[in-house]
Amino acid sequence: MNPKHPLAPDRKGQPMRWLLAAVLIVLLVGVLILSPNLAAAGPFLQAATDDETSVWESSDEPMVVNEVRFAGVITSVPAGLVGDWTIGGKTVHTDATTSVNPRRAPAQAGNWAGVRALKQDDGSLFALRIDILPPIVRLEGPILSMDDATGVWNIAGQQIKVNNETRINERMGPAVVGAWVEVQAQEQGDGSLLALRIAVIEPKEDVSGFGAIQEVAADRWVVSRMTFSVIVSTTIRGPAEVGLLARFHGSLENNALVAEGIKVEWREAERPHLEPVVFQGVIESLPTGGLIGEWVVSGRRVMVDVSTEINQNKGPVEIGASVHVEAMRQSNGSLLATRIVVLARPALSLVHLKGVIKSMPASGFVGEWVIHNDDGDHHVQVSERTWVDEHAGVAKVGAPVQVEALRRADGSLWALRIKVIGDGAARIVRFRGPILHLPDAPNFIGTWLVGMQRVVVTRDTEIDQTEGAVRLGAWVEVVGTQKDHDPVHALRIKVLPRPEITPTMTRTPHPTRTPTPTHDPSLPTRTPTPTRTPRPTMTAVVQRVEFEGRIESRPPERNGLWRIAGRDVMVTAQTEIDQSHGPAVVGAWVKVEGWQVTNTGPVMARKIKVKAPPTP
């Protein structure tokens, strides 16, 4: 107070009081203008940036026997919150003892939830606690483009809408193309992502994100409208199931996101009374339709479930691959895998043998065949992918066959093709066609592909190039010997002067002359010989071919006869193989472009592009 005027205010202290009042007003206005969703999201957004266990409240509590913790999208809520919920595609039962925490968001369909539950003996889940979470999507990555007209930003390969309500924090620098940002967004009714908050951050080694799994495919995932590629080396921890929440990290390739690791929000307590077992071996069999089920690794049966971690960084899971197995021995003596690491791809060698079928499965072809020849009995494994060629006869006990098989690291033989052959003697054959494949060896010694026929050329084969040079596409006449449906062993090959793809016109025959009647009526008139109708010239149909499918078999070398989607495909030195999306191995999904002579010959591949790795 002023001592001269006791009732007058002290003007020296007024500026400080005004400053304090202004700060309080700004804080109050900030609280009022915050949206309810963003306000509710605050604790969860902080949790999403912390360690991976922070989705659940009190996550530092140790897990009890049979406890399961997961997070997913709520799709149904019972009346009164007691009964059966559907969260992350799982049915979760609650009763009056279940703690439901709606502090972060209301308990309603569309929101997310972290669940702590007990797995019952029948596999059902009883919830101990359910924490409701707002559906806030998180993404960290560089700004690739900013469209002011549409308000759409491309951040780490994802389309993010930005409007006037989006809060942009530029304390670490301006939000421009090339800057790294952290985005917190929500899905809109039209399927887009609307940014609630964008904050400029320091650049990081990997792009990362968090959201709900919406689509799982062999080559890509969609997590809360964020799409990214999945390759063979991508590490996936937890069950790949739609509806669960997941974190991912990866890198940008040509402005497209490729995942290096995916962590699904699913944890299970270790099973009681289990003994750890660690060993290495070779995969001998796998469950049908995926990786969940029983494996046989070097004679030991191992069960794999959704909690098993499978590391495929060094190669895909396939029969013959070497693996490191960590498992727990259960009370009944069986092994349950906790972790499997692929160490090396199968060591393969191509084997050719001839013999007669000594035994085969009682029904169908799949199973073990025994092929007998002078070297003894050969046990050959036949799968659904083996091509059993019965053009020359029926595959039955006693039938002579040729076998192409892969010898794996454990010595087992896995048939690629079994061809029934006849006992007929070799015959002379002569035909014409275009050269579709040439060997790389000097003097063209090796196997050619002429039209739809494989031709074996040796040092004794006479090659006549007086009317043209041997080259791909040149038309030739082949004379050789052939036994049954074996390749033709060429005696002579002559290059023709020009391709004969265009058919020649069939000459119209001259009409038969009417005979002159005989002068002696007692003698019969000679019947004229009918004009012989000429054979039409055969047209060689060369057509472009384009199709997709899985690689069913292939030689260990690059070039040779592949089997793709049930069709023979010849791969030569001129074939382009695009492996940018994964290796061209058995089981990979590929696109084939090439050409084919007639509808029954093999496809000559111009290009094979891998579109997806083998399906786990």
Describe the structure concisely.
With 616 residues, this protein is mostly beta strands.
Main β sheet profile: 11 strands, mixed
Strand element count: 42
Catalogue the unreliable spans. 1-11, 31-53, 499-506, 535-541
Radius of gyration computed on alpha carbons? 37 Å
Shape summary = globular
Averaged pLDDT: 80
Which structural class do the helices and strands define? mainly beta
Portion in strands: over 45%
Distance between the termini: 82 Å
Number of helices: 2
Proportion in helices: under 10%
Folded structure, characterized:
Residues 1-11, 31-53, 499-506 and 535-541 have low confidence and may be disordered. With 616 residues, the protein is mainly beta. Helix content is 6%, strand content 48%. The chain is built from 2 helices and 42 strands. Strands 7, 8, 9, 10, 11, 12, 13, 14, 15, 16 and 17 form an 11-stranded mixed β-sheet that branches. A 5-stranded mixed barrel has the order 1-2-3-6-5. It has a 5-stranded mixed barrel with strand order 19-20-21-24-23. The radius of gyration is 37 Å and the shape is globular.
List keywords for this structure.
6% helix; mainly beta; eleven-stranded mixed sheet; 616 residues
